Every structure is written in C-alpha cells, then in structure tokens.
Amino acid sequence: MVKIRPHEKFPGVYIVTLEGGTTSLATRNLVKGHSVYGEPLVEDDLEYRLWSPYNSKLAAAILRGLPELPLKPGDKVLYLGAATGTTVSHVSDILGEDGLVYAVEFSSRPARELIMDVASLRQNVYPLVADARFPRRYSPFLDQVDGVYCDIAQPEQAKILADNADLYLKPGGGILLAVKARSIDSTRDPTKIFAQEADVLRSRGFKVEKTVLLRPYDRAHAMILASYRDVKG
C-alpha cells in the first residue's frame, strides 16, 4: 500500500512510501494523468508525481540536507535555465495554482519542449525564450519575484543570478544556485569552484546560508542557498 505524507519542512513537497518500504520525494500533480519526463504517478485522494534526485538537482539538494526551500505555495519564482522543464514542472506543482514560474531558457530546442510539454498544460508556467545574461531584455514580461532559481551552463553562474536578482528579486527574497563546476572550469577542483561562486554572491550582497554537495546524484555539482543580507533600497 502506498502512503503519502507532507514533507515536515517544505510545504508543497511530499514523501511517498511505496510498497516494499522504499521512499521517494513527490509533488502533487497539477495536471492529472500527465507525466512530464516519464516519472511514475501515484494516487491517494489526489495524484502525485515521484520526484527523482537523479533527474532534478533540486530534489537531490533536498535529500542531501538543504535546510530551507525559498519557494512555497503561492510564490512567484524566476527560474533561469529551465531546459525542457523537468524541475520547472515540480516547482510548478509546489507553487500551485496561485503561484507562478517565469521559466527562462535560451536554447530553442529545449525551449520548444518546455512550451509544448509543460507550459501549454500548466497555467502557472510562463515560458521566456531569452538569454539570462541579459535580464533587462525580458523586463516587460516580469513582475517582482519571491525567489530565483538558477541552473545554467555558463562560466559566470553566480554573476548571472545576481544580475537577475538585482532587477527582479523582492527585498528579503531567497535564491538557489545549482553550480555546475565543469561548465566553469573542467580542470579545477570543484570544491574550489563552489567556494568561488559563493564568494561572488557574498560580494553582491547575499548571505550564503549553505552549500550542499549533490553527489552521488550529480558529480561536480552543488546547490548554494542564499538570501539578501539587507533589504534593497
């Protein structure tokens, strides 16, 4: 028998205990009967989508001890590096019908899948085919957001996130930065790159709360949780 319970720390996230006793993260499916990337669906009174840490860095970070999730039901979130929408879809579930995800993706092929398979079915996903390095270009389409999530394959990942946060993040808002060490420098020790990106965030006015290594789910990747140290003027 499948058992489903709310996560004790993160609203909108659930723990599913499957037959045999194994557990999995899950989110409540906003589009009943639809699987975004082949993830299993389970039902209680409602339908839930299992959330694999091997497919989503955010799920990996939660399982690796992320102390806080700076997105919750009803929030508006700017998501940089949306790709085909795997994690975007789970963020959409978490935020619920009263929330909104601005999903930014530059590459046309994954953006097309994002639009067709995720945004066209979810009213709380607003896709933007744009380059996150130039955040002012999509300012006509955005409101202020409660959080920023960044998962991009660029050399200056922390800088790009901070540039976007300066324009769009509400005072006191939080961010999550999925650092891809190999996209920055494939020859350096990943732990030094994680520290470097955290230092960039500090220099831009963030308080770094935690750096969570994502192995064994993702090698040479880490999730940095941070928030603005002071309210912006």
Per-chain topology:
Elements (H helix, E strand, L loop, with lengths): L2 E4 L7 E4 L5 E6 L12 E3 L3 E5 L5 H7 L12 E5 L5 H10 L4 E6 L2 H12 L5 E5 L15 E6 L6 H12 E12 H4 L5 H14 L2 E8 L7 E8 L5
Parallel strand pairs: 6-7, 6-9, 7-8, 9-10
Antiparallel strand pairs: 1-2, 2-3, 3-5, 4-5, 10-12, 11-12
Helix pairs in contact: 4-6
Give the rounded overall mean pLDDT.
94
> Could you tell me the strand content as a percent range?
25-35%
Assigned CATH architecture of the largest domain: 3-Layer(aba) Sandwich
Helix content: 25-40%
- Please name the CATH topology of the largest domain: Rossmann fold
Strand order of the main beta sheet, please?
Answer: 8-7-6-9-10-12-11
CATH class of the largest domain: Alpha Beta
Structural class, from secondary structure content? alpha/beta
Count, helices: 6
Q: Low-confidence stretches at least 5 residues in length (pLDDT < 50)? A: none
Specify the biggest β-sheet.
Answer: 7 strands, mixed
| Helix and strand sequence | EEEEEHEHEHEEHEHHEE
Radius of gyration from CA coordinates: 17 Å
The number of distinct structural domains comes to: 2
General form: globular
Number of strands: 12
Kindly report the name of the CATH homologous superfamily of the largest domain. Vaccinia Virus protein VP39
Written description of the protein model:
- With 233 residues, the protein is an alpha/beta fold.
- The protein has two domains: 3-52, 2-Layer Sandwich (Phosphorylase Kinase, domain 1); 59-228, 3-Layer(aba) Sandwich (Rossmann fold).
- The protein contains six helices and twelve strands.
- The chain has a seven-stranded mixed beta sheet, with helices on both faces. A five-stranded antiparallel beta sheet has the order 1-2-3-5-4.
- A hairpin with a 7-residue loop joins β1 and β2 (14-17).
- The longest helix has 14 residues, at 190-203.
- It is globular and about 50 Å long.
- The mean pLDDT is 94.
